[in-house]
Specification:
By secondary structure, this protein is of the alpha/beta class. 50% of the residues lie in helices and 12% in strands. It is built from 11 helices and 8 strands. Strand 2 (62-67), helix 3 and strand 3 (89-93) form a beta-alpha-beta unit. Helix 5 (137-159) packs across helix 11. The termini are far apart.
């Protein structure tokens, strides 16, 4: 009996350490104020996007909530204003699964807002399907929509430099692979709806994020704009709302104990957006508020260039 109690005690002790050291993670230590600065946060009606928006608004930024749902976006607008104590918060509709919507958002923003200092490409989806433009859902929303948005806003970012682009990826990118044949044939990273297939396609889309950052950094050389991508951690947020019932059933018992809450999950985003002195790390990948090395496939110059050129064609930029 005493041995069993000892084993149980050790298990709970290890779990406690994991929870409070590994899961909780580091915090953004920047005290930067953002008065007079403008920030866009995509997918900011929920989860870490909303938490990020609240923090930036508290620092004095003018924050644009770029969200697909008008109802949820307007509800988030009131919450962000209330929680931050700031009235410098605006909702603008943006559907990253629609090239037309992305272009409309950029046009409206550029006409109405004179500045853009930080662009945070936060939105993401874990769901198979097709966008209105016929692209694979995760490829279209997780990559192409943000690729197009960033390029349409790049001149404004350059005018307002020093400025930053922050792209949320995931450690899942390590398991990804870009199937260019499938992209050219089906405009999707993969086909199928099995649990493992959907997870693989999600991982592929996150690898797109890292390769996009890698190539963007090259194109930004000589400007006052820098870019960073990051893994926010495993987050107890609404991303899993799009998973099927089996995954939700498996993940639910784990989320409360082993996943970060949205405040903890927003810290690396805030670090990349705000931390002073990280400009020499342009194009790098961060996790837990620390720069990390990536596998060779995530910094493959040829693959990054090929993905960029394909993305230009599929988004209508080329």
């Amino acid at each position: 009996m005493s041995t069993l109690l000892l084993v149980v005690g050790v298990i709970f002790g290890v779990a406690y350490i994991f929870r409070h050291v590994m899961v909780k993670g580091k915090r953004c230590t920047s005290k930067t104020k953002l008065h007079g600065k403008t920030v866009i946060v995509t997918g900011s009606n929920t989860g870490i996007g909303k938490t990020t928006a609240i923090d930036l608004a508290k620092r004095g930024a003018r924050v644009i909530l770029a969200c697909r749902s008008k109802q949820r976006g307007e509800a988030a607008l009131e919450e962000v204003k209330r929680e931050s104590g700031s009235n410098q918060v605006v909702f603008m509709p943006l559907d990253l699964g629609s090239v037309k919507s992305v272009r409309s958002f950029a046009e409206t923003f550029l006409k109405s807002e004179p500045r853009l200092d930080i662009l945070i490409n936060n939105a993401g989806i874990y769901l198979q399907g097709r966008t209105e433009d016929g692209l694979g859902m995760m490829f279209g929303i997780n990559h192409i929509g943000h690729f197009l948005l960033t390029n349409l806003l790049l001149d404004r970012l350059k005018e307002c430099g020093p400025s930053r682009v922050v792209i949320l990826s995931s450690v899942a990118h390590s398991f990804g692979k870009i199937d260019f044949d499938c992209l050219n044939t089906h405009k999707a990273l993969g086909l199928g709806t099995s649990l493992m297939k959907v997870l693989k396609i999600y991982s592929d889309s996150k690898l797109c994020n890292v390769l996009f950052t890698h190539e963007l950094a090259k194109k930004l050389q000589g400007t006052k704009v820098t870019c960073y991508c990051l893994h926010p951690g495993a987050i107890n947020s609404e991303l899993i709302r799009n998973t099927d019932s089996t995954w939700r059933m498996l993940l639910k018992p784990l989320t409360a104990f082993f996943f970060k809450n949205t405040v903890q999950g927003a810290q690396t985003t805030l670090h990349c957006a705000l931390q002073e002195g990280i400009e020499p790390l342009n194009g790098r990948y961060f996790s837990n508020c620390t720069v990390k090395e990536v596998h060779a496939k995530a910094k493959d110059d040829a693959a990054a260039k090929k993905l960029w050129e394909l993305s230009e064609r599929l988004s209508g930029l080329a």
